[in-house]
Amino acid sequence: MRFSIYRYNPESGAKPSMQDYTLDIAPEGKMLLDAILALKDIDPTLSVRRSCREGVCGSDAMNINGQNGLACITPLADLKQPIELRPLPGLPVIRDLIVDLTQFYQQYRSIQPYLINHDPEPEIERLQSPAERAELDGAYECMLCACCSTACPSFWWNPDKFVGPAGLLQAYRFIVDSRDQATNARLDDLEDPYRLFRCHGIMNCVEVCPKGLNPTEAIGRIKSLLVDRTV
Amino acid sequence: MSLPKRTFDALVIGAGGGGLRAALQLADADLKVAVVSKVFPTRSHTVAAQGGINAALGNVSPDNWHWHMYDTIKGSDYLGDQDAIEFMCRAAAQTVRELEHYGLPFSRLDNGKIYQRTFGGQSAHFGQGQAVRACAAADRTGHAMLHTLYQQNIRAKTHFFDEFYALDLVKDEEGYVLGVVALEIETGEPLLIEARTTLLATGGAARIFRTSTNALINTGDGLGMALRAGIPLQDMEFFQFHPTGIAGVGNLISEAARGEGGFLVNRHGERFMQRYAPETTDLASRDVVSRAIVTEVRAGNGCGEQGDHVWLKLDHLGADKIKSRLPGIRDLARRFAHADPIEAPIPVFPTAHYMMGGIPSNRHGQVVAPTATGPEEAVPGLYAVGECACVSVHGANRLGGNSLLDIVVFGRAAGSHMLDYLRENPYPRPIPREATELALARLARWERGGPGESIPEIREAMRKIMEDHCGVFRSSAGLREGVEKMQVLRERFSRAVLHDQSKIFNTARIEALELENMLQTALASIVSASGRHESRGAHSQVDFPVRDDKNWLKHSLYFLEGGRLDYKPVRLKPLTVESFPPVPRTY
Asked: What is the pLDDT of residue B209?
C-alpha cells in the first residue's frame, strides 16, 4: 500500500515535507495504526502518539486523507491510496504527526471540568434518576482526542479565546448533571463573544468525532439555556 | 553532569486510576504533589476498563463485604493475603461512593442508586448464590473513573509532568528513595524530580505477550525500576488470560457481556461451560473459563474455518439491552471482529490481560522487601499501588471488577500513609551525586547507532516466547526452554542499537527503554513460572496438575541479581474475622 506522510523534525533544519512510503500489508481486518506501526518498525524516525489502539484513549488523532480521525479505528481497506497523513490542523507541530495540544488542554481546564456541589456529602451515593443520568450520555464519553476542535475554523483563529467544541461539550456535561450546583456560574463564564459565541454551527466537529458525539447540539443547548435565563 | 532539578513533597509515577487517586489524597491535604506520566493522563490504561468496580452496596440484592472477601480469597486460589483482602472489601463501599461524590457518572437504577451487575466468581452467602456487585458506568467504567479522577486533580491543582518518561529511582546509601530521574519526551532532556516520598503506579505489562488486551504503553516500567533498585518482584508467574479477547486481535470484550446474560458456545452450538463449571457456568472465575476455551479448541470443538476460537453469543439479549448496557463492546466487536453482537456471535479466545504479581507491597501501599532485619521491611519513602504492585489481593487469579477497586482503595490508602510518612520525615535528605548515575547510564546506553541487533525484532521474539512457553497451559520442559530462549534474547538485547539519535520527541528511544523493562518483566515471569511446581489459579502446569498447599502455599520473589527465586508465606490471618482456610476450589 502507498502512503504519503507529513515529516518534520525541528532538529534537522529542514522544512516540513511529505514523504512517500510503500508497505507490503494485507489491509483486510487491519486498522491504519497497524500500518503506521509496521512502517515505524522499518523507519524508526517516524513519530506518532499511540496508546490503547482501540479508540478509547484518544492518542492517535491525525488528519487522514483530509479528515481528522483516530488511526486505530480507521479501517485500512476503506482508505484511498496514497493514504495521506498529516498532523491535526491548526496547532503547532512538535514532530511528524505529533502536535502541541497545550492550548487545547488549557481550554478544557478553563471550563472547570469537575463536579461542583457544596452540600455535605451524604453517607451513600447522591441519587440520580436514570432519566437525569441519560442527560450525560453523548457528553461524558469524550476522550479529548482533539479531532473536533482542530477541525473547527473558529478554534484555528482563536485557540486562546474560543473554548472549542471539545471544551464546550464538557462544559455542557457538567451544566446538565443534576448533581452539579454551579450551573449559573458556568453559564456566566461562557456568556462571552469569544468563549461560546465563536461557534457558528458549521458542524465540522460532528462530522469528525470518532465517538459519534454531537458538540454542535450541546453548544446549541447551552445557548438556549442562556436565552432561557434572561426571559 | 549537573541535572536540572524540581522539588516536591510527594511524587507519583503513573497517571492511571491508582496514581491519580493517591495524588488527589495528597493534593487535597495541601501538599505539593507531582504526577509524572509518559502519556497525557487520560491516555492511561485505566481508560480501557469496561465492566465495573466491585463493592457490596447491595443496591440490587442483599450483599455483604464479608461475602466479597470470601469470593476474592477463593478466586485467588488462596494465594491472596487475607488481611489486605479484608481491608479492600471493607473499604469498597465507601471508596465507590466517594467516586460518585467526585462526579463519576455511574449508570443508575430506577431508585436513583448506582447500577450494579453480575460478574464472574461473585457469590452471595459464601458461595450459595449469585451476587450483583459490580458498579458500572455502562461498559465504560474505567473511562468514567479516569476522567473523573483527572478532573478532581485539576480542581486540587496537582502538578502534572505530562509526557515525561521515568528512567530510574533515586536512592541514597541508606536505601531511602528520594525521587526519580525522568526524560522529558518533547525535548529529550533528563530532569531530576526530588520528593521525600515516591509512589510507583505504572500499571501492568501484558504487552510482553504477543496477543494482549492491554494498551501499547503497558510495558512494566515500574517493575524494571524496582528490580534495578534491588527490589524483588512477587508472584510474577501469575498472568491472567481474559477468556474473551477478540480472536486474533486481542481487544477486550468485558465480562459484563456474560454478566448481562451472554454465554459461550462451541462449534456444535453447545454451552460447554456447563460441563466445566456446573454451578456458575459462564460466570466461573476467569482462569477456569480460559482453560475451558483452550481445552475445547484443542479438542477440535473450536469455531471458524481454522477452529481456533469459540463464540460469545449476545443476540438473545435484544438490541435495547445491548445498546444501553454494552454500547462500548458493541462498538469494539463491530470494528475489530466485524460482528454486530445484536445479530451475530463474537469470536473470542483467551488473551493476556492482567498481572496478578508485581512489586511486593502491604495494605498501606508501602513497598516491602526482605532485608537483614526482616522478611517484609518497608523500603523507606517508596510506595506502589495498582497493577504494578502485589499487595496481594488477587493472589493467583483476579476477579473481574476487583482491579478498578484495587487501584482506588490502595491509591487512597497509599496517599494517606504517605501523608503520615511526610509528617515523620519533614526534611529532605541530601541526594548523593552518584545517586543519579544509574538513570543517566540507562539513557547513555542508547547513544549507540550503527550495526547491531534490532529493537522491533527482539520485542517480537520476546512476545512469541511468552506466548509459546508461558500461556494458559504450561509444561516443565516448555518453561525450561522458554527461560533459555529468553536469556539468549537478553544477550541479543545487550547488542541492540538505536537508529534514531534525535532528541525531540524521539519515540524510538522510548520504545528501546520500554523494551528493557519488558524483557526484565518477561524473565521474571517465566523464571517464576518455571520454579512453581503446582497448578494454582492462572498458573496451570500440566506436569503438576493439582494445587499443592503443603509445599506451594507461598508467594514467590524474583530478584534481578542472578535471576534468583525466594519465597515468603501467604498471610492467612485477616484483620478482624476468621481466616478462610484453603479448600478445594470448584465453580
From this structure: 97
Closest residue in A to B511 (Cα–Cα) = A44
CB contact under 8 A, B505 and A47: yes
User: What does the pLDDT read at residue B402?
Assistant: 98
3-state secondary structure chain A: CEEEEEECCHHHCCCCEEEEEECCCCCCCCEHHHHHHHHHHHCCCCCCCCCCCCCCCCCCEEEECCEEEEHHHCEHHHCCCCEEEECCCCCCEEECCEECCHHHHHHHHHCCCCCCCCCCCCCCCCCCCHHHHHCCCCCCCCCCCCCCHHHCHHHHHCCCCCCHHHHHHHHHHHHCCCCCCCHHHHHHHHCCCCCCCCCCCCCHHHHHCCCCCCHHHHHHHHHHHHHHHHC
Report the alpha-carbon distance of residue A85 to residue A93 in Å, rounded.
13
Cβ–Cβ of B43/A52 closer than 8 Å?
yes
- Rounded to whole angstroms, the Cα distance separating A105 from B163 reads 14
pLDDT at A230: 83
Show residues of chain B in contact with A59, CB under 8 Å.
Answer: 39-40, 43
Report angle CA B206, B207, B212 to the nearest 5 degrees: 70
CA distances from B66 to B74, B437, B573 (A): 12, 48, 14
Q: How far is CA B481 from the centre of its chain?
A: 26
Residues in chain B, pLDDT under 50: none
All residues of chain B having their beta carbon less than 8 Å from the beta carbon of residue A114 are 102-103, 151-152, 154-155
Residues of chain B in contact with residue A174, where contact means CB-CB under 8 angstroms, are: 103
Which of the residues in chain A have pLDDT under 70? none
Q: Do the Cβ atoms of B110 and A133 come closer than 8 Å?
A: no
Predicted local distance difference test score (pLDDT) of residue B1:
54
State the Cα–Cα distance between residues B2 and B192, nearest whole angstrom: 10
Residue A51 sits at the chain B interface (C-beta within 8 Å): yes
B547 as an active site residue: the answer is no
Residue B157: per-residue pLDDT? 97
Catalytic-role residue among B90, B286, B291, B585 = B286
| N-to-C CA span, chain B | 60
Size of interface A-B (CB pairs under 8 A): 144
CA within 13 Å, CB half, B426:
1
Closest chain A C-alpha to B148 CA, distance in angstroms? 7
Q: Look up the ipTM and state it.
A: 0.98
Interface test with B, best of A9, A140, A209 (most B CBs within 10 A): A140
Q: Cell 470443538, residue? A: B301
Task: Give dist(CA B349, CA B212) in Å, integer.
Answer: 11
- Whether A143 sits inside 8 A of B47 (CB atoms) is yes
State the virtual CA torsion across A82, A88, A90, A95 in degrees, nearest 10: -90
Residue B400 has a pLDDT of 95
What stretch of H or E contains B153?
A: helix B141-155
Q: Are B399 and B285 in contact (CB under 8 A)?
A: yes
In angstroms, the first-to-last Cα distance of chain A is 59
Chain B: residue nearest A39 by CA? B456
Q: Which residues of B touch A101 (CB under 8 A)?
A: 40
- Which of A95, A130, A144 shows the shortest C-beta gap to B504? A95
Nearest to B135, CA basis, from B122, B150, B147, B149: B122
pTM (2 decimals)?
0.97
Report chain B residues whose CB lies below 8 A from the CB of A112: 155
Report which DSSP code applies to B16.
S
pLDDT at B449 (0 to 100): 83
Q: Do B155 and A114 touch (CB under 8 A)?
A: yes
Contact B108 A129 (CB under 8 A): yes
User: Scanning every residue of chain B, which has its alpha carbon at the shortest distance from the alpha carbon of A144?
Assistant: B42
Instruction: Write down all domains in chain B, each with its CATH number in brackets.
Output: 5-238+356-434 (3.50.50.60), 244-349 (3.90.700.10), 436-549 (1.20.58.100)
